[in-house]
Design goal:
The chain is of the alpha/beta class. It has one domain (3-548): FAD/NAD(P)-binding domain, CATH 3.50.50. The protein is built from eleven helices and 22 strands. The protein has helices at 16-27, 43-46, 134-138, 148-162, 188-199, 244-250, 297-308, 379-386, 391-401, 445-464, 530-548, and strands at residues 3-4, 9-12, 32-35, 70-71, 87-88, 92-93, 101-102, 204-206, 254-257, 260-267, 273-280, 283-288, 291-294, 325-333, 347-349, 365-369, 405-412, 421-429, 435-440, 467-475, 479-480, 512-514. The strands form five sheets. The protein has an eight-stranded antiparallel beta sheet with strand order 6-5-20-14-17-16-15-8, with helices on one face. A five-stranded parallel beta sheet has the order 9-3-2-13-22. A hairpin with a 2-residue loop joins strand 11 and strand 12. Helix 1 packs parallel to helix 6, helix 4 packs across helix 11 and helix 5 packs across helix 10 (445-464). The radius of gyration is 22 Å and the shape is globular. The two termini are 33 Å apart. Bound molecules: flavin-adenine dinucleotide and iron/sulfur cluster. Flavin-adenine dinucleotide binds at residues 12-18, 35-38, 67, 108-109, 111-112, 115-117, 119-123, 229, 261-262, 295-298, 300, 304, 483-484, 516-517, 528-530, 533.
Amino acid sequence: MDLKQSYDAIVIGAGAGGGAAAWRLAHHGKTVLLLDAGPRFNPTADYKLMQPDWERHNFPNKTGSRGQVSFGDLGRVSEQNKHLFSWNTVKGRLSAGNTRRPLGSGYEHVQGIGGSTLHFVGEAHRLNARSFSMASDFGVGADWPLTYDDLEPYYVIAEKVLGVAGSENQKECWRSSAFPLPAHLFSPAATRLVEAGAKLGMHWQANSRAALSIPYENRPQCNYCGNCSRGCPLGDKGSSDVTFIRQAEQSNCVTIKPLSSVIRMEADDTGHIKTIRFANNGKYEVIEAGLVVLAAGAVQTPRLLLHSQLANSSGQVGKNFMELIAWSAAGFAEDIANTHMGLPADAICWDFNAPDAIRDVIGGCRFTSSVQDLGLTGPIAYMQHLISGHSHEAKAQLHKYFGKAVAVSAIGESLPNSETFIDLHPSETDQNGIPIPRIHAKLGENEIKRLNFMASTCRRLIAKAGVKQLRLEQGTYDFFSSTHVFGTCRMGSDPLNSVVDQSGRSHDHPNMLITDASIFPSSGGGEAPSLTIQALAIRSVDQYYHNHE
Ligand SMILES: Cc1cc2nc3c(=O)[nH]c(=O)nc-3n(C[C@H](O)[C@H](O)[C@H](O)COP(=O)(O)OP(=O)(O)OC[C@H]3O[C@@H](n4cnc5c(N)ncnc54)[C@H](O)[C@@H]3O)c2cc1C
Ligand code: SF4
């Protein structure tokens, strides 16, 4: 075993939050060791969108790129809410029985240099300014110990590194500077939804996207292939590897160790984190810590802390887990073409994003165009989800309908409750003998009400967009399929009921910051989280050095 202390900071996890923290540490001239459990991905070799058989390739699995998770109680489903069951034309109802289950692996997060942003779609949102005070203003969840105004300058920095393209502000999010890049033009499907929304009195606008509308910082512009979540071979999507981490590496301050899974941390008598143990290619190493930045994500961060028995004097580690709730609807419009082309989620409606925007429900949601997000970009997907029948008949239908899918999705707020949490599995361990995390996630009454609103609004929108018959509806009433996860190491002013303070610093361990989605006290009304994670990470590093130098 080695014992070295040659870095100012050790960052655990190279995803959205870890990448931004490493970048900011390098900006301060600090030497950084960036450890990640997953491998490096090579965009041109690993992502297959330039190949003729691209549709057969989802986001690639590489050795070490999927962390193990397990599921506890995900809740039950009821026939009373059967209008919220997921279904499609090909398979009928997609769930069976009366329990809510994980969809596929249920938790699609990626381990790798870039973390889950390698797989993400690239929406780049700020959090609605009114979502920072859910407890004070609406009596639910918890308040953030900082305001939108505190975070605004850091949003600007993160947007510049990513190259965010946009035009109009998000509702209730003032900006001190314009978007770095012009907004993307609407795809055919988005244009149709914008028109349909207007007929219903809804305001739709260009979504702010971490995808380049013009060349930027030696990265090319997007080619609108529409398949961002399969991995972007061009490098124009603003995943952490080609933005924060690439720039951090260029500074020569940052050493990256892929396939290095941290298995335990230890503190000394003063509460300082002293040593970090990690496994790399079957070998175990121990390193002494200066500053520790923990950014393993909202599931793996509490797992590591619970296993190491650290940072938990409040008893809140693992608690207050929040998932994403979602609804999507799709069908064909006869009088449209080429809807398979374009950037995913290129148009958005923020009308219902504020915590009190939906009548009789606390917590918001937003709507986006979603043909590409649902993967309806090639003939295989049409055959799997939208077109039933056999052989000649199905082929004729494909010929008739390809490029005519219209889809809308809603993503909504999820409030924590006593039955949403992460703990350690009592018996299952990973290859290093560490208990794997277990996700418990039951939807509350507010979530079901919000899902009802999301589903009914999607149905109205899609009908106005010219879809006569729905061919697919899927949502999170009967499935857990959370791409956004939050909470579990909540930030707050009171050490008795929060894990970190307003600068992401552990209340218990003065040399530990947490800079991932685990520190969110509330999820916002459907905003994509990465930009907020990155803004918080940059702010936390700045505050740490402001207080120490
Ligand atoms: C399909 C999909 C689409 C999405 N679309 C969007 C979107 O459009 N916009 C958006 O903002 N967000 C999107 N998200 C969500 C976004 O990717 C995550 O919210 C974000 O990446 C979370 O950042 P994080 O820093 O908390 O964790 P991650 O980015 O998941 O990074 C955590 C890292 O920690 C590493 N790690 C874990 N345990 C250990 C350990 N013990 N030792 C060392 N390393 C460890 C992991 O390998 C991983 O690389 C999407 C996610 C998915 C899956
Ligand atoms: S649509 Fe643009 S950002 Fe997305 S994968 Fe294709 S080229 Fe990359």
